[in-house]
Amino acid sequence: MGDWIRAYDSSPLSELSQPVLELQKLAQDCKFIVCSDLCRSIESAERLGKEKILIKSPLFSEAGMPYPNSVAFSLRPHTWAAIFRIVWLLGYSSNAESYASAKVRAKQASSEVVQLSKKHGHIMYVGHGMFNRLVVKELRRNGWQGSKHPSREYWGFNVYEAP
Q1: What is the mean pLDDT of residues 67-78?
Q2: How confident is the model at residue 71 (pLDDT cuts 50, 70, 90)?
Q3: Which pLDDT band holds residue 1 (cuts at 50, 70, 90)?
Q4: Do 98 and 79 form a contact (C-beta atoms < 8 A)?
Q5: Strand, helix or coil for residue 57
Q6: Buried b (16+ CB within 10 A) or exposed e, 151-160
Q7: Cα separation, 41 vs 8, whole angstroms
Q8: Sign, CA torsion 10/115/156/128
Q9: Coil, helix or strand for 7?
Q10: Whole-structure pTM over 0.70, yes or no?
Q11: Which residue blocks in 15-56 are alpha helix, DSSP H?
């Protein structure tokens, strides 16, 4: 499972994967783009405006997927991923960042997004599923308006506005 996770984290986007038109238009109106340092996040940001990428940081990376060093039976990787993400929420963090640590990092990431938006106006944050949910929770806790639940789709997006 560890090999599968590392391969997924370093895999490029499909050449066929392109942002939806509405997202492309939003990217044009942004001053700059912030993304994680994972390959798929950087490539996504590049497809939205390579010249606008200001920050590529592990601060914005997906919350790590836990996994044991060995298991007694086989399941498909996506099945294991669902199981391991659930047990991660319950406190299991073998070979990964803990849920508690990810929440602390999300608070730091949301603070960075707030500061950048105060300084530069419209910015775009290109992130990852579970970590996006943690960042959104922090932004909303600080009065930001927008969807309670970030999109789970590839190229899905939400707009959040400062109070």
Answers
A1: 91
A2: confident
A3: confident
A4: no
A5: coil
A6: eeeebebeeb
A7: 12
A8: positive
A9: helix
A10: yes
A11: 21-29, 39-49
Question: What would the mean pLDDT of 120-139 be, rounded to a whole number?
Answer: 94
Q: Which is nearest to 67 in space by CA: 82, 47, 49, 52?
A: 82
Q: For the chain, list the domains and their CATH numbers.
A: 23-62+97-141 (3.40.50.1240)
Q: Which residue has the tokens 């602390």?
A: 104
Other beta carbons within 10 Å of 9: 17
Both tokens of residue 98?
């803990």
Distance CA 150, CA 157 (A): 7
54 CB burial (10 A radius; 0-12, 13-18, 19+) = middle
- Two tokens at 38? 């994972």
